[in-house]
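Example 3.2
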Amino acid sequence: MASPSGSPHDLRDTLAFAAAQGILPAVTPVSLDDAPATPAAMRAGTSHGRAVITF
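Structure, written as C-alpha cells:
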C-alpha cells in the first residue's frame, strides 16, 4: 500500500533533497515465502523500515 504524501512536484522535490543529502530509505527485503509473517512482525515492532517483497 502506498502512502500519499503530496503532489508529483512535492515528491520530485523530496527525492532531490534526499539524493542531495545522501538520505537512503530503510528497506527490509522479504522473500515471498516469508511475506505472510511480515504483518505480525510489524505489529510486534520487530521489523525495521519498509518491508519489500522480493521475487
